[in-house]
């Protein structure tokens, strides 16, 4: 299959950016602990990151309709480069608060814009295969980033890692400049209501919010679980997290041959939620090999859900409003993530870092209920 420039360029940019995001993100709590920050200070910094995302998500989505996605992605990349240089230079708590704010806006702007560019410019024929391949390349960046982060931190300082991250992000900025300037659209906020505020869309968003709860649990407890419960070093954590993502790449490859042929996405969505949730629970078994096996299966479920969300966006929203729709999806994921972080963070510190993973896994399984209701309402709407 020949890949067009409009697909290859944003895919390459997103893959490289995801490499940097996973190169550093899961290790940030360890870095902040090393700086001497207490749990409350670390919680405040990550709360700023997530709460800022809550406010930025939908406006950035709308901006991708009113302005070129290329322009928004460039702004995001520039802010990320500045923020990573800031991480390498400053250690003051109040300065880091500003840097985490920049990181939130930068990642939201860059990730949403590249996703929106692909969603808007991918033709209907073979879109399931294209979205799956986009996901595969993105997660390959994740896989390599997690492993590289663990290996590098065994021999270099966090500050040097942040400088390297800024230099790598400069390549994404270069790639982003090569994206075409798209047509833009101007809508009033009320015009999005006709596509968003439908019962079957709202139940899909509820499904996504419940599923995203586990992202918040992972942000506060995943790295600490690997360190404290499984006794892994940064190198071990990198291999554990990175190799588990291999299942995402495999799943994306498998789904690329199936999603364009299926008449119902529900069976894949339900399977993804159950695999993700059940394996999130079972990965807390305190045996490294058993835990890793279930983490591998968890990522399989995550891959299915994430790819399907791109297909749902294209199914329910017009191309002209796809930026705002993607922003609404990002907002929903952010709300679920924040809820997971706020609710499970104190639980992990109080009674064990495995409990946030167990609780969020149960909620992911329960997300099957609104998913089924969503499908029934969609059938009635037709």
Structural features:
globular, single chain, Growth Hormone, Chain: A, 382 residues, mainly alpha, 16 helices
The CATH class turns out to be Mainly Alpha
The largest pleated sheet is described as: none
Structural class: mainly alpha
Question: What radius of gyration results from the CA coordinates?
Answer: 20 Å
The tally of domains stands at: 1
Number of helices: 16
What pattern of helices and strands is seen along the backbone?
HHHHHHHHHHHHHHHH
Q: Count the beta strands.
A: 0
Q: Using the 3D structure, state the CATH architecture.
A: Up-down Bundle
Q: β content, as a range? A: under 5%
Structure description:
There is one protein chain. By secondary structure, this protein is mainly alpha-helical. It has one domain: Growth Hormone, Chain: A, CATH 1.20.1250.20. Helices cover 82% and strands 0% of the residues. The chain has 16 helices and no strands. The chain has helices spanning 5-24, 28-34, 39-66, 69-89, 93-121, 127-152, 158-177, 189-196, 199-228, 234-244, 246-255, 266-282, 288-316, 322-351, 354-366, 368-381. Helix 9 (199-228) packs parallel to helix 14 (322-351). The model has no long low-confidence stretch (mean pLDDT 89).
Describe this structure in a few short sentences.
The protein has helices at 5-24, 28-34, 39-66, 69-89, 93-121, 127-152, 158-177, 189-196, 199-228, 234-244, 246-255, 266-282, 288-316, 322-351, 354-366, 368-381.
